[in-house]
From TrEMBL:
MF terms (GO), sorted A to Z: triacylglycerol lipase activity
Family annotation (CDD domains): Lipase_3
Lineage of producing organism: Eukaryota, Viridiplantae, Streptophyta, Embryophyta, Tracheophyta
Gene3D superfamilies: alpha/beta hydrolase
Protein's name according to its UniProt entry: Fungal lipase-type domain-containing protein
Amino acid sequence: MAPLSFPAGSSEYLIVRHEKVRWIDLLSLLILRRNFLDYHFVESSMGTRLELGNAKATWPVSLSIFLLKLLSLIKVPMEKFGLLFEFTCNLFGLNGGFFGLIKNIFTGKLVIPVPGTADYKTAIGFLDDRVTLYKDSRLLPYFPGAPPTGKSLAGDTTGLDLPIMASKVAYENQAFIMKTVLTNWKMTFVQHFSCWNKFMNDYTTQAFVFCDKPLNADYIVVAFRGTEPFNALDWSTDVDFSWLSMGKMGRVHVGFMKALGLQDEKDYVKGWPKSILPEIGKPTAYYAIRDTLKKLVLLHPNARIVVTGHSLGGALAAIFPAILKLHEETALLGRLYGVYTFGQPRVGDEAFANYMANEVATAGGSPKSPKEEKFFRAVYRFDLVPRVPCDNFLLFEYKHFGTCIYFKSWYEVEAMEEEPNPNYFDIKYVVPMYWNAWVDLYRGMTIGFKEKEFKEGLLSIGFRAIGLIVPGLASHSPRDYVNSTRLAKDASSVSEYHYEEEMV
């Protein structure tokens, strides 16, 4: 096979080395206002220096650097606290609560949680312990992008319900995920991936693949795990704004690409070779999942591929098809049914957004109409994460792409190009954000009286209370995306959006 040819410009980059940041550097950013590219913790290509010139650090830049420094300092205690917190939650959960725990201690029936088992849940699982697919007539009536009369991903359940549930379950361990897919969903579990990040020297990326049927499946679903609550490395990836030029594809968030399997952070040609030979026991996310999909499409000749994820998982889901396009994997791209993300941060610049819409969305052997979208990202109210990195500053020129399915509340949905308050810090949205936090807290405390299966526990209510301090943080919970998907009664605005696009 002839070697792939790549466009020029593969060496442009801007990388922030947060491990090199000193506290005095933060003061310098705020007071001295030096050229940002001259700081010792910033690495950039010559072309980037010529383009940005004497660029000064704006306060959002300084805030991001501060958060990166802070996260690097609290990494270990944050991780240890998370392990203790989750163990404690599982200890109480498996023993029937506080009084059950006391009873089991005195009766010799104490259940000791074992991490990695099918009954051991993460903090995300305790915030929302639902694992079954929903079956109710009030759902969004069709899978966005599919014909209204088409078959949904989960038979008689909504098309959006399966992606958000897969995205939520992706936070759990392999045994838990396998049990959920096989027992609760009655589907076919294929494989769980725990993948190596060579830059962080750790297994930072998890995902799993499953099919709706064991034979002649209709759908193959890839679900990436999102940002773990107590993982400082995950949060560092989210708030970092380092980027790497991908030639004509545009600039892409380098941290997300590292999590996906980037091999060289300063040259995308070397960074994304057609194939690699990973170290034994250290699979790389993109390559391992791609090779599994190649086998599955041969086993299921009529199956379509769905890629999904929440938070960081949504970012990886959004970039994954771009690398398939880079490697001209037309057989897989032709099977791509859609990318459905929830609470996804921005992953690239405007050039990348245009490339995804104009090249990737129509790539493959059986392309959709150019007017029909393949990329859908759900945003719940003032969720903080979809609004970073910012898109209106010199060093933060990131853009979203695809249709935004904006949940105004648990009950209202609207399709749009960009969610309101796109950069979070607009002062005119301060009152609405805090009001939304109070409303969500009230709903979380009271909805169980009317809708029993939506009843929330004390942990979930407590997490909602955090939104009274940092509005938008509590809105990032997968629970709100599950609630919104299940309680939205009318998808007419989404349907009209597609109809109007097709009429253009």
